[in-house]
Design a protein that fits this description.
Number of strands of chain B: 2
Largest sheet of chain B: 2 strands, antiparallel
Structural class of chain B: mainly alpha
Number of helices of chain A: 8
Order of helices and strands of chain A: HHHEEEEEEEEEEHHEEHHH
Radius of gyration of chain B: 20 Å
Helix content of chain A: 25-40%
Oligomer: heterodimer
Strand content of chain A: 15-25%
Largest sheet of chain A: 5 strands, mixed
Strand content of chain B: under 5%
Shape of chain A: elongated
Radius of gyration of chain A: 25 Å
Number of strands of chain A: 12
Largest interface: A-B, 20 and 17 residues
Strand order of the largest sheet of chain A: 3-2-1-5-8
Strand order of the largest sheet of chain B: 1-2
Chain lengths: ~325, ~130
């Protein structure tokens, strides 16, 4: 499953809707585009006709007809259609079985699931997984400035505002990986604040959530050096790994309990494949300038590789 | 006469454009046996070498965590100590820590065949 998801290019197109809301928005978009093209063609035609000499123009007819009546009729029809169409958009409802909390931060996304088994919250970052065909409630908030949550292939935008909770219902009708992008300028790395929504069959989703609920994989002796480096380098000051480092204040840095299972690193900047974690740890600023995580300056090469190998096996 | 002069100028301009294009279009000689330059360029992007290296012509390769590879084809040494020959470079790309134990560059699971294509592209950087 991982390899398939990693190989498929993530879709971020509002023109290829994969959810009911996105389909409504795409339809409205095409109608606006078609209507605009018709109006343009009409104006060009009238313009061409007007260049022919010898035909008297009756200004009053044109002003009243094309200047007042036509726009009035067209815009009224569009308004009625738009209002009727928008009413079809899914209403946010927190009554759906699956509820996910999303906290936008500079410049990443903290994602929280409630453990169906009643354990502590399952916290991950920059990746939301959902069962195909089921509406899911997202509680959107912000930890710092205003951001906006936007998965073009699934739904419209919803702003995340500090101190407020905005609800949203998200539904994916086709399995796949959908890229989301912060859609409200939020600082230096706004453009590299992405999130991936993975829609998968319900059984697969259930297995995934159960795996995410478990504490971090021990790894054994082969990664002991990396595990020691994680503690020794004080990574635990900002990052939680359940079962290894806990009690980190929320929101300092992404939870790394199952980082090896994620598709991307650094909020969508690198594909999570061998070498990527080492590059990121060595100097995240080279990849994402301004990111809050400091570069490692006092780790020798072997330790860096051991640390990356330890994190990579946290599936 | 005027039209003819214009035509001559136009011809000259076309010839200059065609000749100017010659240099850019000339295929660089692959120095690595079995290495495909175009494929190497794609592989360098696919393995995300750009997460650490600046590599001209490779998508997204702007990082300066590792050495910039702008003029790699003119380099005398790989990793600062290994004479820069194709076989050595391929060995290095496949498993850097095996060649130089203390290095920060990790083994990324690159098969030797892919490494040959990547080496072929890197030697075009002069």
């Amino acid at each position: 499953m991982m390899t398939i998801a990693a190989a498929a290019p993530a879709s971020q197109s509002a023109l290829h809707p994969a959810g009911p809301d996105a389909a409504i928005i795409a339809q409205l978009g095409w109608i606006l585009f078609g209507g605009g093209a018709l109006v343009f063609a009409g104006v060009m035609l009238v313009c061409a006709l007007s260049l022919r000499r010898g035909r008297p123009v009756r200004p009053l007819v044109w002003i009243a007809g094309a200047g007042v009546l036509l726009p009035l009729a067209a815009l009224t029809a569009l308004l009625v259609f738009g209002v009727w169409n928008s009413a079809e958009l899914i209403r946010p409802s927190s009554r759906h079985a699956l509820k996910i909390s999303v906290v936008a931060r500079m410049w990443w996304w903290e994602v929280r699931y409630t453990d169906p088994a009643g354990g502590q919250d399952i916290v991950l970052a920059n990746e939301i997984r959902l069962p195909v065909g089921q509406p899911v409630y997202l509680g959107l908030s912000s930890g710092d400035v205003i951001h906006s949550f936007w998965v073009p292939a699934l739904a419209g935008k919803v702003d995340t505002v500090p101190g407020r909770l905005h609800g949203m219902t998200l539904q994916a009708d086709r399995a796949g990986v959908y890229r989301a992008q912060c859609a409200e300028y939020c600082g230096e790395q706004h453009a590299r604040m992405a999130l991936h929504v993975v829609a998968q069959p319900p059984a697969e989703f259930k297995a995934w959530l159960a795996a995410q609920a478990r504490p971090a994989h021990e790894g054994g002796a082969s990664v002991e050096q990396g595990r020691r480096a994680f503690i020794g380098q004080r990574c635990a000051a900002c990052h939680t790994i359940r079962g290894v480092s806990e009690g980190v204040p929320a929101g300092l840095g992404p939870d790394l309990t199952h980082i090896g299972s994620r598709l991307y690193l650094g909020a969508g900047v690198l594909r999570n494949q061998p070498g990527a974690l080492a590059a990121w740890i060595a100097d995240p600023h080279s990849i994402k300038p301004g990111v809050r995580m400091p570069a490692s300056a006092d780790m020798d090469g072997a330790t860096l590789r051991a640390l990356a190998a330890y994190l990579e096996q946290l599936k | 006469v005027r039209t003819r002069r214009y035509a001559a100028w136009l011809l000259c301009a076309c010839a200059a454009a065609v000749l100017g294009g010659c240099d850019a279009d000339r295929p660089a000689q692959p120095e690595v046996a079995g290495g495909n330059i175009a494929r190497g360029r794609l592989l360098l992007a696919q393995y995300q070498c750009g997460a650490c290296h600046r590599i001209p012509g490779v998508d997204g390769a702007r990082s300066l965590t590792g050495p910039a590879l702008d003029t790699f084809g003119r380099r005398s040494y790989v990793a600062g100590f290994l004479p820069n020959y194709p076989d050595a470079l391929v060995r290095w790309i496949v498993d850097p820590p095996a060649v130089k134990p203390g290095t920060a560059m990790p083994a990324m699971g690159v098969p030797a065949e892919d490494a040959r294509h990547m080496a072929a592209y890197l030697y075009t950087l002069k």
